[in-house]
Amino acid sequence: MRIIRFLQEGSEPVLAALTDQSEVYLLGQTDFMELVREAEVRQRTTLELVQETIAASEPLAVKAEELELLVPLEAAEVWACGVTYERSRDARNYEATGGRLDTTTFYDKVYDAERPEIFFKSTAARTVAPDRDLYLRSDSNWQIPEPELGLVLSRDGRVVGYTIGNDMSCRDIEGENPLYLPQAKMWKGSCSIGPAIRLAETVEDPYAFQIVCRIFRDGEKVVEGSASTGQLKRRFDELVAYLLRDNTIFDGTVLLTGTCIVPPDDFTLADGDRIEIEIGGIGVLANPVRSQAKGS
Ligand code: DO4
Ligand code: MG
Question: Would you say residue 71 lies in a domain?
Answer without folding.
Answer: no
